[in-house]
Amino acid sequence: MKNIQNFFCISLICLLLISCANDDNNVEITNNNTTIADDIFTLVNQHRQSIGLSVLTRNETADQLSTEHTQYMISIAQINHDNFDQRGTILGDQENATGMAENVAQFYPDAQSVVNGWLESSGHRQNIEGNYTHTGISAIKDSKGRYYYTQLFYR
For 18-60, what is each residue's pLDDT tens digit? Predict the structure, then answer.
């Protein structure tokens, strides 16, 4: 009987340790990636509304394409618009997109600073203020803790 009690006690402790560890990791991923992208989404839409434009709708396909591109930029440690046409083709095929733009950035520490940086650049500002209806956003830290960003726009 004592062996059975010990087995259940050890099993319960292991189960608690495993479940707590998984929950902590999920929270950290959400805080590092999702929250800053959500903040960018909010700030861009606030800016659009402040100048009389309609808000953008977040799109899962565009989010995924943004994430893939951000991961690619991190892998080569350089911001770029490589394979932009391929992302446009996918959005055209899967989401019936007829026009598309993209903003990228690196090393801004938070959503406010990256959006401010984009708004201070005429080309990036044109994308934010453009005739678009949907967006996808990704903000991912590299191994040194520095953010890389991609925001796609389409209509």
Answer: 333 333 322 223 344 458 999 999 999 999 999 999 999 999 9
In this structure, of 9-18, 59-68, 119-128, the range with the lowest mean pLDDT score is 9-18
Sequence-distant (≥ 6) Cβ neighbours of residue 97 within 8 angstroms? 88, 91, 134, 154, 155
Q: What is the DSSP letter of 134?
A: E
Residue pair 155/111 in contact by the 8 Å Cβ criterion: no
Measure Cα distances from 109 to 30, 62, 86, 103 in Å.
16, 23, 29, 16
**What is the value of pTM for the model shown?**
0.78
> Which ranges of the chain does DSSP label H, i.e. alpha helix?
2-29, 35-50, 60-76, 84-95, 111-119, 122-128
Tracing tokens 């899967």 back to the chain, one arrives at 94
Q: Calculate the dihedral angle through the C-alpha atoms of 73, 78, 81, 83, rounding to the nearest 10 degrees.
A: -50
Cα–Cα distance between 75 and 64 in angstroms, integer? 16
